[in-house]
Amino acid sequence: MAKSNINPFDKLRVDADNTSQPQSSSVKPMTMAELLQKAKSKFVTLKKGDSIKGIITKLTPSEILLNINAKTEAVVLEKDKKILNKILSSLRVGDEVSVTVLNPESDFGNPVVSLRKSIDDMVWTKLLALKKNQEVLEVIVDSVTRGGYLVTTLDGVSGFLPNSHISTLENPENLIGKTIKVIALDLNRSLNKIIFSQRQVLGLGDFEKKILDFKIGQKIDAIISNIASFGIFVTMQTRVAGYVEGFIHISELSWESISDISENFGVGQKITAVITGFDKESRRVNLSIKRLAGDPLEKRLEEFPVDKKIKTKVVKIISSGVLFDLGEGIVGIIKKDKIPPNVSYKEGLEVEATVSSIDKKRHRVVLTPVLKEKPIGYR
Question: pTM surpassing 0.85?
Fold first, then answer.
């Protein structure tokens, strides 16, 4: 009997192949390396700083876990209690969130991630909605600055409340640590900047109700709530309900020039002023202190009746005409269109003129030059 040339091991391999895979199949068997690569490709490869989505699988004060398609569940690391409380109150097991990888693999084999970006996104989305709808939110006053107050929302976002947008009877220092109601005026996430307003919390309808008993020209008592470089803010009690804010511009504080308001006025000081108007857009009552007393220059202006001839010297030449100093704060002016074509003026020149009219608001005496003969074309 002739010997077979078939190697018994080859026979076994053929039999094994025929057993594991039908002869009619065209599928090529996978190698061990390919099987390992396929198993490995099911998991993501993480790097520090990566932003990746995950599903919350556990949410407790002591442990927060997420499925981010890694070999093991990711652990959320958050030491800030405010942010941790926000995570616990805002999210639920099963929520999909964006996380930032802090460490691809800790000593315990878990990826370590941060949820701050998701919380930050949620907070800014909420703030944008509140601003759009002009809804009221609460902030805590942290400190007083020269221009206003530094405040923090209950979500932990810092912002600024300008002096011009505060409305309270209290001394600024007494507000620190207190919670007040505001609206968001301006948001800039790229600069992490938020401007709030307290005074606009008062609606237009509410403001109009509060000022029902107020009239222009009425004297009223008020308390200074804030001082700015351009004026002072006051609070006045209304008969209808509570208080309303008022404002006195620096030009309405005194007939005399004031360079530093704080030298003459202080927060908490009681003053008496007269109502000059109502700013419905700003929800404020405009006031004046100086108008309580008569204009001291009005009596002086009576010394310049129409057609009176005077001699005075040029003190300044401006685009609209020539100015003269008539003494004690009174200014004389010959307007440009009243200067004859063949006449020119220079500072220090003595001029004879006639009073044409009085501008009480500017404390000016309008003059016309005395002409020996009327030039052609002069009006």
Answer: no
